[in-house]
């Protein structure tokens, strides 16, 4: 550890091992808070690792204002360890109390050290990501790794200091530049899109205002990959009606509809997810645009496919067993539906779309009623038999039970 620590500190801006060292030191400080008392001495691997950092404090910690607090905590740790070691081997009451107090204090200082090292990790990772995002000659594999690590940190939940770093280094704008750049490899652009969505989920109030919705939609639809469509669905759920409005105004509805004809099943499934989300948040103009593309006819076709089916028939198959369900039975039935949908993702997709319109946020009540009538009419036109029509209509009318 000491050699790796020294090498990393000597070139802390560019050394790829820097974050690895910091993570190890963070783990050491975390372990020190939970070790058994008899390990709380200078021979503890955790303490040795942190004291090695303390010996380097004059080199970098004392000259970096961001690390001055960490330097103070490390100095305090060394003092406590020295006090603990002096009391070891003595059987007096005073020595016993000194050991108890020192061990408790070491645990508390270790917690403060862990917090400061985590802040250091945030600074290093954001600075490295910002530098790499702006490098026109970046290594794609390295950038994908950095974006993955960034997404993992964002997913841990809100952190004010981390957000300040993201804003300071203009990470959001750099991510969009990568996402919009057709010369950049698809894999990097996909991960940039995922990072954009992750930041919006991290703090929607701050980052929704920064997203360039039109260009983002065009970039994601232009890639037309599993990851890009997943990001598109995420952004619909996160930004809601304003994002759906932008999709419609940019003329992307036909492109999303076209994905329902993809040769790749997962693309078709994700396209249906987008359609359902758009149905929930979309206003009249957007739903009209999907209807004009022949959406209902396509959904009927998908529902009749091998990976389609009818959930209402699944309900009917339960028969009297459903009536005899005890408490918790509803949850079991929902799980059964979920398992069925995993194998038959287009099951009851017409009714699922109708339900999205019915319970959604984008339409007025009179618009919802009008679209329900229109869906029933289009189902009649798309059905090849009265039985098929009757089944789909029953699912639409009893959609809330699906």
Automatic annotation (TrEMBL):
Annotated spans, Disordered: 313-337
Compositionally biased region (Basic and acidic residues): 321-332
Membrane-spanning residues: none
InterPro entries for this protein: ARM-like (IPR011989), ARM-type_fold (IPR016024)
Designated name of the protein: Uncharacterized protein
């Amino acid at each position: 550890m000491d050699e790796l620590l020294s090498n990393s500190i000597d070139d802390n801006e560019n050394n790829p091992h820097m974050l690895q060292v910091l993570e190890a030191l963070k783990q050491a400080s975390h372990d020190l808070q939970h070790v058994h008392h008899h390990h709380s001495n200078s021979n503890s691997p955790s303490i040795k690792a942190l004291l090695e950092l303390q010996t380097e404090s004059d080199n970098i910690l004392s000259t970096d204002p961001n690390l001055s607090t960490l330097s103070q905590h490390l100095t305090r740790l060394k003092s406590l360890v020295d006090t603990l070691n002096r009391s070891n081997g003595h059987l007096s009451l005073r020595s016993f109390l000194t050991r108890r107090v020192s061990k408790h204090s070491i645990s508390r200082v270790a917690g403060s050290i862990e917090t400061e090292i985590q802040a250091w990790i945030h600074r290093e990772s954001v600075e490295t990501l910002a530098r790499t995002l702006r490098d026109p000659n970046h290594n794609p594999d390295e950038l994908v790794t950095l974006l993955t690590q960034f997404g993992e940190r964002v997913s841990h939940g809100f952190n004010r200091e981390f957000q300040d770093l993201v804003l300071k280094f203009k990470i959001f704008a750099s991510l969009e530049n990568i996402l919009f750049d057709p010369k950049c490899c698809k894999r990097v652009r996909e991960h940039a899109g995922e990072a954009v969505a992750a930041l919006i989920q991290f703090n929607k109030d701050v980052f929704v205002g920064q997203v360039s919705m039109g260009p983002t939609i065009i970039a994601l639809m232009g890639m037309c990959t599993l990851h890009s469509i997943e990001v598109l669905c995420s952004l619909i759920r996160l930004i809601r009606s304003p994002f759906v409005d932008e999709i419609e105004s940019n003329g992307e509805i036909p492109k999303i509809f076209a994905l329902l004809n993809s040769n790749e099943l997962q693309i078709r499934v994700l396209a249906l997810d987008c359609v359902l989300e758009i149905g929930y948040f979309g206003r009249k103009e957007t739903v009209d645009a999907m209807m004009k593309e022949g959406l209902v006819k396509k959904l009927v076709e998908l529902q009749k496919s091998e990976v389609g089916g009818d959930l209402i028939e699944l309900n009917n198959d339960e028969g009297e067993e459903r009536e005899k369900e005890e408490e918790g039975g509803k949850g079991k039935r929902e799980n059964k539906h979920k398992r069925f949908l995993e194998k038959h993702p287009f099951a009851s997709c017409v009714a699922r779309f109708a339900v999205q319109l019915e319970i959604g946020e984008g339409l007025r009540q009179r618009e919802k009623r009008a679209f329900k009538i229109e869906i029933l009419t289009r189902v009649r036109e798309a059905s090849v038999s009265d039985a098929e029509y009757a089944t789909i209509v029953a699912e639409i009318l009893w959609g809330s039970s699906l």
